[in-house]
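Mods, move this if it's the wrong board.
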Amino acid sequence: MSKDAELIDRAAVVLPDGFRPARTDKRIPVRRIYARFNPARDSVQPHLHALLGMSPDPEPQPDPVPAYEQPPATPVPDPADDGSDWYDIDGERIYRWVLQTEDSHFIASDAAGSELRDENGQRIYVDEDGRAIAAPELHVDNAASTAADYPTTNTPTRKKSLISRTKALVSSDSDANSSSAQVFDGNGVPIEDFDIGKIGKQPTVGRHNRGRRALAIGVTALAACSAAGLITGVVLGRSSVPAEGAISAEEAAAYRLTTFPVNAAVGFAQQYLDVCLTHGDDESVKRREQLLQAMGTPGAAESCGWTSGGLQQEPSMIVWDGTVSPITEFPEGDAAYLGFTVSVSDGQYLSMSVPVWVRSSKVSNDMRIVGDIGVTAPMRLDNPPPAEPNLKEDPNLAAQTKDSLIRPFLAAWGASDSGQLNLVLADSAVARAKTGLGGMVTNPKIDQITVRSPRATSTPANQPVSYEDGNVAVAEVRVTWDVPSSESTQTTGYRVEIVRHSGKWLVVDVRAGLVDRGGAASSGSGIGSANDLVPGAASTRGNGE
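Not the wrong board. Structure tokens:
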């Protein structure tokens, strides 16, 4: 037998757990029974021997599965020694040599101390006289232990490559799963699909593994489909978003969108109105005409509609009122009417409209005024309803904090006096309450104060309002300041937020502006039509009307 074949055969040997070679002094000279098993011959010939009445060939054959190397044993002479490992007495083979294992069992061996095997490759158990007996029941903790678990000096270990180890693992799994042995469960029901588990693990029915594999495949497929759907959704979603300038006219009208370059057109129209409304200076008339002619089209009124003569005039304010009315008559470019609020030097207020054309929404320097300007009445005025406060008023708190907190705070805040501010500010005060006005205004006079608080809102009207530390309130204050720079006065409104801390009120924040809660409806003036503010109304109001 070749060395490679010998190594392969050794790997297939299965030994009981805890087996150890017997010591030399435990060998007992007894008779033997059976010839060495020769796979090439004895797998067939025993049947022929039985048919012909012949005995098996007693010639010993090389052991296909070498056992562990044992110390050489000294044979004990036997009267019937004929050179074989057994002898025959009354038709019964009795082994000459036996080995005693650690579990006190005896097994057949040859004179060299190597185990003998039967035709099935199993140990031959004998009694102390060398007669064969049935194999005893052995406690085996690991039935899959092989000769590789018990290295010996005559079984060198060969390191296998990664490919060889992988092939051996696959082949061993397939061989185990293809076993033809019938397996039954605890109730005696045959198990058709039985998987060989790992060493030390309980065997599992194959359908369990199939279920886990099916679950893993299903989860993987679901994850793949989800990823594919996400990628597809992102791609289709991004492709459905219109590019810049690709929005339809209906969508633009619905969402009040436009591709018209409003900011650039507003600047150009403001420049045109400034030149148009400035006239009367003889030295600049010619320059004015040249600018207007260059900015407008020939079909518009000459010199922006102004004839020579009259008093000098120039606008004091030109502000875009936010209106854009598209013009769709031009086959190329974009055009729109832009609305402006204008105030001239005499204090009159006007609303003017300027038609502006631009060649491209991306090129905002190719523009032209494409018609005459229009003059209409100024903005409408309407009556707002009274404002409804969210918090209920507390008159007692207003009287308590007016002179003790609000007035000292406003005086220190107007002068930016940090020392005085520290006396009335809470630790949580914001930056604008600490900054102040730097002395631009002085001597605050409180014309009106109203304090509102959540605590007052939740208290019934017939009960006094009580406060605790941490409660907040808002003081609505109208203040008249002295303005040293103009030697005048200015009335302003503030919302001062205060908080109760350690039994006293402190300022947390101050916000500018105050709403008139009465509203214009209480005046009963009846204004609100398109003619409420006519040209020259600013001058009329200035005369005290």
